[in-house]
Structures are given as structure tokens and as C-alpha cells.
Amino acid sequence: MYVCLCRGITDSQIKKAVDEGKAKCMRSLSVELGIAGDCGRCGKVAKQLLEQWAMPEVAFNNVA
Ligand code: FES
């Protein structure tokens, strides 16, 4: 699924960047892939994915 239409970035590319340790926060995700570098509309979804994949314990704690 496309997350960033401006840069043509998919959720799979974000997951790969997280798995490879290249994206641990929104800043590094933006530097690595260019997320939210144009219109910024993808930032909210990208942050949710990042929290889910890079910080699973935080996502788990937010469920309760
Ligand atoms: S949709 Fe990602 S910067 Fe516009």
C-alpha cells in the first residue's frame, strides 16, 4: 500500500527500513525515504506504522 503518494513510498519500504535499522524515528524515516518531505499528508500514517514496527512495546502499552 502506498503511504506517501508524493514520493511513491510504500508500507513495505518503510517496514524494510525499520527492519534494517535505518528508520527508528520520523526524522530518520524522512532522511532515509523522504517521508513527509513534500505535502506532509503521509506523516500521520507513517508515524503509526513506525510506532507499530519500531516501537512495538509502546504500541502494546497504548492498547490498554
Ligand atoms: S504524501 Fe508524503 S509528502 Fe505528500
Describe the structure.
The chain is mainly α and 64 residues long. The protein is built from four helices and two strands, in the order ββαααα. The protein has one domain: Arc Repressor Mutant, subunit A. Helix 1 (11-19) runs parallel beside helix 3 (43-54) and helix 3 (43-54) packs across helix 4 (56-63). The protein is globular. The mean pLDDT is 89. It binds FE2/S2 (inorganic) cluster. FE2/S2 (inorganic) cluster (FES) is lined by residues 4-7, 36-42.
Instruction: Provide the β-strand percentage band.
Output: 5-15%
Number of domains: 1
CATH architecture: Orthogonal Bundle
CATH class type: Mainly Alpha
Radius of gyration over C-alpha positions, nearest whole angstrom: 11 Å
Q: Classify the fold: give the CATH topology.
A: Arc Repressor Mutant, subunit A
The main β sheet shows up as: 2 strands, antiparallel
Structure annotation, total helices: 4
Structural class, please?
mainly alpha
* Topology order in helix (H) and strand (E) letters: EEHHHH
Dominant shape: globular
Write out the CATH superfamily name.
BFD-like [2Fe-2S]-binding domain
In total, how many beta strands? 2
Distance between the termini: 28 Å
Bound molecules: FE2/S2 (inorganic) cluster
List the keywords:
4 helices, two-stranded antiparallel sheet, mainly alpha, globular, 58% helix, 64 residues, binds FE2/S2 (inorganic) cluster, Arc Repressor Mutant, subunit A
